[in-house]
Amino acid sequence: MASSYKFQGWIALDKESAKGNMVWQEYEPKAWTEDDVDIKITHCGICGSDLHTLRSGWGATNYPACVGHEVAGTAVKPECEECASGLENHCTKMVGTYNGIYPDGSKSYGGYADYCRAPSHFVIKIPDGLSLVEAAPMLCGGITTWSPLVNNGAGPSKRVGIVGIGGLGHFGLLWARVWGAKRSLRSPDQVQKKPTQRRWVL
């Protein structure tokens, strides 16, 4: 299916891209299938995994690459339904949001771009009242902390321990607060101290 728009993004050509040496250029998205959705990107969060991929820190990156998996925007073709299938992120045949290879041999490109194309069952509708700028970082740090808290029954009768208050820790604190759990925060430098010197913050 032909598009009236171009797929362009910040492209990493080699390991030096992690030092800010990405280039804005056009790229070829995966071949369109009827199960896909194209998204006009308005916001994309920044995750540590983006930097690892840019510098080939988790194995060789398939350059050129466009990173960014915390993508928020508007579906431009077609409208899509939410996915409720469960644990597809554990599938051995999973194709990541970026730096992945689809079964047809085409590459996946991420959200540091104008548009991206993805299988529609991985696309969810952002609820009315939640801005896309607020939603984008929730698509990694938010779900990474939300899932274990839900799966372990966080709530008023539980205590939740958080080590560090970075990209993930602050979401863990927010979720625990919303659910009424008691919260304990420990900074990474406190982990290095002797147990009697550690300070807990509620």
TrEMBL record:
Asked if Zinc is a keyword of the record, the answer is yes
Residue span, Alcohol dehydrogenase-like N-terminal domain: 34-76, 78-128
What Pfam families does this protein's entry cite? ADH_N
What molecular function terms (GO) are annotated for this protein?
metal ion binding; oxidoreductase activity, acting on the CH-OH group of donors, NAD or NADP as acceptor
| Top-level taxon | Eukaryota
Q: Which UniProt keywords apply?
A: Metal-binding, Oxidoreductase, Zinc
From the Swiss-Prot or TrEMBL record, give the protein name.
Answer: Alcohol dehydrogenase-like N-terminal domain-containing protein
Species: Monilinia fructigena
